[in-house]
Amino acid sequence: MESYIPISFLNDFIFCPRSIYFHQLYGSMNTQLYQQKPQIAGKAAHASIDEKTYSTRKTILQGIDIYCEQYRLCGKIDLFDIKSGKLTERKREIKVIYDGYVFQLYAQYFALTEMGYHVKSIALYDITHNKSFPVALPDVDTEMKQKFETLIEQLNTFDLNQTGFVPNEAKCRNCIYNNLCDYSLC
């Protein structure tokens, strides 16, 4: 069976490569055992997408499964307006536009393009502040596209036991898995 990378891993890997391993340890356990307020609030903000109740318009794709053969990525989109060609990734609150957010959009863009959809624009949307942040398409921002491809390569070759991992105190402090991690600085 061919392996693939869940799109959500892109942002998680940038946050901390080890967090993906710990997330898998929890498997199908009740998320209330380990998630904290930000994760719970984020999941609640996505409810209308997950339940496909955001829109009844036939031209709005919401929460559909996607797969990108080129990069071996899979996941779901938030919203894609077929008429306008706009792909939107919704976040509960955006304080900083992290590369991982952009890379999640890129993954969705590449998957939709492979599926035959014409994606004309991509954007991040801050639900809390009702604000949209346009993002350049990968073919326009070649530097970010190269960073995206480098990240995919790093994900495909990461070894949990590799030497040289350096924890980040600020990230460890906010990591929901720091109680499991032998590298955690907290």
Report on this model:
By secondary structure, the chain is α/β, with parallel strands linked by helices. The chain has one domain: Lambda Exonuclease, Chain A (Alpha-Beta Complex), CATH 3.90.320.10. Helices cover 37% and strands 18% of the residues. The protein has seven helices and eight strands. The strands form two sheets. It has a five-stranded mixed β-sheet, covered by helices on one side. It has a three-stranded mixed β-sheet with strand order 1-4-3. Helix 1 (8-15) crosses helix 2 and helix 1 (8-15) packs antiparallel against helix 5 (99-114). It is globular, with a radius of gyration of 17 Å. The termini are far apart.
Features:
186 residues; alpha/beta; Lambda Exonuclease, Chain A; 5-stranded mixed sheet; 3-stranded mixed sheet; 7 helices
Largest sheet: 5 strands, mixed
Principal-axis shape equals globular
- Identify the strand order in the major beta sheet: 2-5-6-7-8
Q: Give the distance, in angstroms, between the N- and C-terminal Cα atoms.
A: 38 Å
CATH architecture classification? Alpha-Beta Complex
List the helices and strands and how they pair.
Blueprint lengths: L4 E2 L1 H8 L1 H10 L10 H9 L1 H4 L9 E3 L2 E4 L4 E4 L2 E3 L4 E6 L7 H16 L6 E6 L4 E5 L6 H16 L11 H6 L12
Parallel strand pairs: 1-4, 6-7
Antiparallel strand pairs: 2-5, 3-4, 5-6, 7-8
